[in-house]
Amino acid sequence: MKVIKFNRCLYLAYCVFSFLALYIVSVKFTNKTGTCNFFNFISRYSFSSYLAHIWVLGKLMKIMQWSHENILLYGLTLWLGTSIAAPFLMKLITYIPFTKVITGKPSSNALLLKITGKTGFGQSV
């Protein structure tokens, strides 16, 4: 087997052009408001979703007990399902009063806001 010798110039060119290509793709994505809004929603709850993704992943694996013939499809489906389910779960949790400790976001509970005039932990609106 013939080994290709490392070439620093080619490596640096690869890094620069990869960065530029990813930048162009991200600019194209941000021009589409639907895609940008979806990623904005996921990023809003990213830390709390990160904390809950193991639990969500375990639940999804129990639901999707396929035969593992196509492991790539199984992995991609689990990744996509977890990426969507975890932020939505965190959004639902924000409707419970005083969950800022869990999610990092103020409570979305409109009933608590109407009764007390405060969101969570004494924060007035």
H/E element sequence: HHHHHH
Cα distance spanning the termini: 68 Å
Helix share bin: over 70%
Question: How many DSSP H or I helices?
Answer: 6
- Average of the residue pLDDT scores: 78
Beta fraction: under 5%
Rounded radius of gyration (Å): 21 Å
Shape: extended
Number of strands: 0
Biggest sheet character: none
Q: Structural class given helices, strands, pairing?
A: mainly alpha
Low-confidence regions: none
Question: What would your notes on this structure say?
Answer:
- By secondary structure, the protein is mostly helical.
- Helices cover 70% and strands 0% of the residues.
- The chain has helices at 8-31, 33-44, 46-63, 71-93, 100-103, 110-116.
- Helix 2 (33-44) crosses helix 4 and helix 3 (46-63) crosses helix 4 (71-93).
- The chain starts with 7 loop residues before the first helix and ends in a 9-residue tail after the last helix.
Could you provide a short overview of the structure?
70% of the residues lie in helices and 0% in strands. It is an all-alpha fold and 125 residues long.
Observed structural traits:
single chain; 125 residues; mainly alpha; 6 helices
Task: Give the SSE layout.
Elements: H1 8-31, H2 33-44, H3 46-63, H4 71-93, H5 100-103, H6 110-116
Helix pairs in contact: 2-4, 3-4
